[in-house]
Specification:
The structure holds two protein chains of two kinds. By secondary structure, chain A is α+β, with helices and mostly antiparallel strands. Helix content of chain A is 27%, strand content 20%. The longest helix of chain A has 31 residues. Chain B folds into two domains: 67 residues, no CATH class; 116 residues, no CATH class. Helix content of chain B is 65%, strand content 4%. Classes of the chains: A alpha+beta, B mainly alpha.
Chain lengths: 257, 221
């Protein structure tokens, strides 16, 4: 025998529905707080090629990068260039990690490790004999500032061709390090081969000064400044990501623009 | 509609917070007229209070994850508004811009009577439509700063990289103002209204209609 259900008054219906809704809302708030706490307190990734970021956030950074690269990356997307007069006379200087002081030019040569283990030693004069490319573009720092600056050097793609590195260029990454190996970057190959990527030896028509990476630096406009390695000592190629100074300290490995 | 509202609140809060972690690394904006700086974003005590300094990479990691939720939530909101037909209550119509002033005057207790309204009044229509356009603006200016080379057309649309960053910042300040006014209005509107945003229904005390119409006004009916 079931009791005949009492007819609920409007007042009771309001009370009941309010109760249920607020209950659900409470569950939602508790859930949201729970998810946030989990994320905020999630452990840091195991230090390796990348480090210094909460593990789930690193995963998200990598996935987001791949998404945007597939969606939009195109080597025909060129960085905007400007007339020469707009280039800054005083080029902003942020850091000299790995490039303190001036390196005597006779002590420097660029070391390129080929796939077969052979090491090429290339002098600055050799590089200067190749066609020079200049670019005046808006250099962008991960901190948020930007500055129009004028660089001269040779295209990385030309460099690959001239020194017979086509096989190496089929690999996924380029690694570059300063001579003292204190600063190092890893670059995905499509960005390295982008037509505006330069091995630069001039700024404002003059040889690079010490603080801007004398004698040879990377200018890669499709990346933030942190990837524009100063004073290149050696170049390597690999299919796994080379070590990267700022990626180890919590920044996005790719830092593409 | 209610759900996207309550999803947006924490997501936008996280976006603003992580945005401040990023902004700190190059905090160059100030409010300056004729060379006199009235206000600089932000004072040191403010940064220190909120533990903002030296967290750029952390801010970027959070910002570039929650941007997804912000965008998807906005997308669902717009999609729902279109499918359900709710947009009819939300988009300003030809009377809205005139009536909105009357609403403002009414809310400020300058005018006694409020103009007639449906689900949302004229000022609400304008405010709630603007906030969606602002959201879209944040998305576009955000993409313009995030990938200025790949999304060069967005950067161009925003008037360049510099200006895009400024717009992105200004929109955020706009959200904060919206929030302050919004909270004030919610408090003024009272409990029944707030409950409606959670439960989805509103309690209206209807006066029982008199059986015999004696009122002159109803003669035409």
């Amino acid at each position: 025998m079931s009791k005949p259900e009492k007819e609920t008054t409007v007042e009771q219906q309001i009370k009941r529905r309010t109760f249920i809704s607020f209950g659900l809302f409470g569950v939602y708030v508790a859930g949201a707080v729970g998810v946030w706490r989990w994320l905020y307190k999630s452990p840091e990734e195991v230090p390796g090629i990348t480090g210094g970021t909460r593990a789930p956030l690193r995963k998200a950074l990598n996935k987001t990068e791949i998404f945007f690269r597939r969606l939009a990356f195109n080597e025909n997307h060129l960085v905007k260039t400007y007339p020469k007069e707009m280039a800054a006379k005083q080029v902003r200087f942020n850091s000299d990690i790995g490039t303190e002081g001036v390196l005597p030019p006779e002590q420097w040569s660029l070391q390129v490790t080929k796939k077969n283990g052979q090491v090429l030693k290339i002098t600055l004069d050799q590089l200067k004999q190749l066609p020079k490319t200049e670019i005046i573009y808006d250099f962008k720092c991960v901190e948020g500032w930007d500055q129009i600056s004028h660089w001269g050097g040779l295209k990385f793609a030309d460099f690959i061709k001239h020194f017979g590195l086509e096989e190496e260029a089929k690999m996924d990454f380029v690694g570059m390090e300063t001579p003292d190996q204190k600063y190092y970057v890893g670059i995905d190959m499509p960005s390295a081969l982008h037509p505006q990527t330069l091995l630069a030896y001039e700024v404002n028509d003059k040889p690079l000064p010490g603080r801007h990476g004398q004698p040879l630096r990377l200018i890669i406009p499709v990346k933030y400044g942190i990837k524009n390695l100063k004073r290149i000592g050696n170049i390597t190629f690999s299919n796994t990501r080379p070590r990267d100074y700022w990626a180890e300290l919590g920044y996005d490995y790719y830092s593409g623009l | 509609m209610r759900w996207t509202h309550w999803v947006n609140f924490p997501v936008l809060t996280i976006m603003i917070w992580s945005g401040m972690l990023i902004y700190w690394a190059n905090d160059e904006y100030s409010f300056t007229i004729f060379g006199h700086t009235f206000f600089r974003f932000f004072p040191d005590w403010y940064y220190n209070l909120l533990h903002i300094p030296h967290r750029l990479s952390e801010g970027m990691a959070f910002h570039f994850l929650f941007m997804w939720f912000f965008t998807l939530n906005g997308f669902f909101y717009i999609l729902y508004s279109i499918i359900s037909g709710e947009w009819r209550y939300l988009l300003p119509n030809k009377h809205s811009f005139k009536e909105a002033w009357l609403v403002v005057l009414h809310d400020l207790n300058i005018r006694k009577t409020a103009p007639p309204q449906g689900k949302y009044n004229a000022a609400q229509r304008i405010a709630y439509t603007s906030i969606i356009i602002m959201g879209l603006g944040s998305l576009i200016t955000g993409l313009a700063i995030y990938k200025p080379v790949q999304f060069y057309y967005f950067t161009w649309l925003c008037g360049g990289y510099h200006l895009a960053r400024i717009w992105h910042f200004v929109l955020t300040i706009g959200y904060v103002f919206f929030f302050l006014v919004h909270i004030f209005q919610v408090i003024m509107a009272g409990w029944n209204n707030f409950r409606a945003v959670i439960t989805g229904f509103e309690v209206v005390n209807e006066q029982p209609k008199p059986a015999i119409e004696t009122n002159n006004e109803n003669e035409q009916a």
